[in-house]
Design brief:
Helix 3 packs across helix 5, helix 5 packs across helix 25 and helix 8 packs across helix 25. Strands 7, 12, 13, 14 and 15 form a five-stranded antiparallel sheet that branches. The protein has 637 residues and is α+β, with helices and mostly antiparallel strands.
Length: 637
């Protein structure tokens, strides 16, 4: 309806009508969340709900992962299925089962673990160092608060603790390891007779009816996927950054800021004494804990060592055993109030009691590391690029708002927006739903918009689309070709080539099977192959299972064959790139586990432990699911 109004009205009248319509829609949405509606629940695990929004987000992420993995082979129609959606829901249920169990067992990631995980993520780093500004900005762009994100991360880390605990309980015995090494190091004497398909092609002369019948049986091979051609405007921080000039003074100022920041954030060796406060403590309890911290401080000032008092008083058992030492920490590793106090202290200075959510702390800094800062000349170009990139991102954000407005006000053309923001309108070639390897057609969000029914039918400008590089785009469908079956007459030559190739490979396989049957009946490979004109016999040779000098099909088939127990050799048919082969095993030698280096043994043992550990984790999940109260609301899926 809104699109129809926009088509027929322009200017302030259109805005007035849209504004009047938005109010009831907004109130209706508000009612859904505040009143009788609310997020739809698709499943619950022991009372913990999984919402429709969580499922949709996880499902979209799964499709994006498949798109990245498969590239050109990705076909949205094959993966936009109820089966994939159901699999995604089952994964969310498995995750919630593990979260519930970890919570019940008291497995909880520490604040330091969460801080370390946040700081180590490249997306929150600038020039290789954690940036609080970037952290907050990225979370805000994705509609998250630091508290919500860190709570989610803490749950993920708790699951990891549980998984590592289960995996650590698995081990591989020396006997099992020796048996596997003997199998891996096995050598076999293999011979084979190759039968190339090309030798049969000249004798295959299909009639018209045979080709048409083959085409009718393989029509999907000749179906062209739906395709679009797009016209688009793109705002790229990379392109804009290249045109930005950064003064020498700005680069020098950034260097001095970074040097000051390095001094401010340099790691400090800290020790503390904690007097904990229960979560449900009243004000009197809080004051009693503070008094205990004051008493501990008085003991230190009276001459007792910090370590002695920490061991006697501190409620932090991990650090108390080490005289209160937390080792070297960075500001982001601890609570902000703790960090603020610790970074005000000079080495050797004792703090007043400091309040955090955990209780009251006495803090002492024992050492402050001098920051390691490269010389200005080493960082000059890097800093200039960083400043240009930041300015480009701000400029892109400003232009994106203008682009969004003009694209909406002029739904039938991109030209006004292009003229206003100074970017050329570009056109793609034909793009399938699987996307292209590079360019605008490789962006999942662009493909999702371009192949939507609304975009294809209305042929209007899209909404503003955020791209993976931090840029933005608006696209419109310039042309569309639906999925279509190419007619027999159009692809006749292709059909004939495919038919002949298939028949020739089948003939080669049939003759390879004739050779195998003769070998299993007791004939030698040489004698069995003599009656097949196209066959070429390769003399026996010893090889390992990873010997690349043998054709892959020969090697894989030869090492899958059982060892012959009778007078006849073991044989089977193997696929080759050019046809087929009859493969024969003449002898087997086991590998020597004692000849394997200790490092290789340890590596293999770790791999086996990881595989067994993952199997154990899966078994734990299955057991927990059996014990959990899992309810799936089919109507909300």
């Amino acid at each position: 309806m809104l699109l129809a109004i926009r088509d027929r009205t322009h200017g302030w009248i259109a805005y007035l009508i849209v504004a009047l319509l938005v109010i009831p829609f907004a109130l209706f949405g508000l009612y859904n969340y505040v009143g009788g509606g609310g997020p739809q629940v698709v499943a619950s695990v022991d009372g913990e709900e999984i919402t429709r929004g969580q499922l949709d987000q996880a499902y979209q992420q799964r499709q994006s992962e498949l798109r990245r993995m498969l590239g050109e082979r990705f076909d949205a129609s094959l993966f936009d299925t109820e089966q994939l959606r159901r699999q995604t829901l089952e994964q969310l249920i498995d995750r919630q089962v593990l979260i519930n169990y970890a919570r019940h067992q008291g497995l909880r990631a520490s604040n330091a673990d969460v801080a370390s995980a946040v700081r180590s993520q490249p997306m929150f780093q600038v020039d290789g160092r954690f940036s609080m500004d970037r952290y907050r900005r990225l979370l805000e762009q994705n509609g998250l608060t630091p508290e919500a994100y860190e709570a989610q991360l803490r749950r993920d880390l708790s699951i990891s603790l549980l998984q590592r605990g289960v995996e650590a309980s698995t081990f591989t015995t020396d006997q099992a390891l020796d048996e596997l090494l003997a199998l891996q190091g096995q050598r076999r004497e293999l011979a084979w007779a190759s039968v190339p398909a090309a030798a049969y092609e000249a004798d295959i002369m299909p009639g018209e009816s045979a080709l048409r019948d083959w085409y009718d049986a393989h029509t999907e091979r000749f179906r062209m996927p739906e395709q679009v051609r797009l016209r688009y405007l793109q705002l790229s921080p990379e392109a804009i950054a290249g045109a930005i000039t950064v003064s020498a003074d700005a680069v020098r100022e950034r260097y001095e800021q970074r040097r000051a920041g390095a001094r401010e954030s340099a790691a400090r060796e800290v020790r503390h004494i904690l007097v904990s406060v229960d979560e449900d403590a009243d004000q009197a309890g809080v004051e009693r804990a503070r008094a205990a911290a004051e008493a501990a401080r008085a003991r230190i000032e009276a001459g007792e060592t910090f370590a002695e008092v920490a061991e006697a008083v501190s409620d932090d058992p991990g650090s108390a055993a080490r005289g209160g030492s937390l080792g070297f920490i960075e500001r982001g590793d601890v609570d902000p109030a703790f960090a603020e106090a610790a970074w005000r202290l000079a080495p050797g200075e004792l703090s007043e009691p400091v309040r955090t959510p955990f209780g009251w702390h006495l803090i002492e800094v024992t050492e402050s590391r001098a920051p390691e800062m490269p010389a200005f000349a080493e960082l000059r170009d890097q800093l200039r690029q960083a400043i240009a990139r930041e300015r480009a991102e701000r400029r892109v954000f400003e232009l994106a708002s203008e682009l969004e407005t003009l694209a909406f006000e002029n739904p039938d053309t991109l030209e006004p927006a292009a003229n206003a923001i100074g970017v050329d309108v570009e056109t793609t070639g034909w793009i399938a739903a699987s996307g292209s390897e590079t360019g605008i057609g490789s962006e999942p969000a662009v493909l999702e918009a371009a192949f939507s029914d609304a975009m294809r039918e209305a042929r209007e400008n899209s909404d503003l689309i955020e791209l993976d590089d931090g840029g933005y785009a608006v696209v419109r469908v310039a042309d569309y070709r639906p999925a279509r079956l190419q007619s027999f007459d159009t692809v006749r030559a292709e059909v004939e080539d495919a038919y002949i190739a298939e028949q020739a490979r089948q003939a080669a396989r049939d003759d390879a099977e004739v050779i195998v049957d003769a070998v299993e009946a007791g004939e030698s490979l040489q004698t069995a192959a003599a009656g097949i004109a196209a066959a070429r016999v390769n003399a026996p040779r010893w090889a390992g299972r990873n010997d690349r000098s043998l054709p892959a099909g020969v090697r894989e088939t030869g090492f899958r064959l059982p060892v012959a127990t009778g007078p006849a050799a073991a044989a089977d048919v193997a696929p080759l790139a050019e046809g087929f082969a009859a493969v024969v095993v003449h002898g087997v030698e086991p590998g020597d586990p004692d000849a394997v280096a200790a490092e290789r043994r340890d590596q293999l043992r770790r791999t086996l432990n990881e595989l067994d550990g993952q199997a154990s984790v899966n078994a734990v999940v299955t057991r927990l699911r059996d014990q959990a109260d899992i309810r799936i609301r089919e109507d909300n899926l």
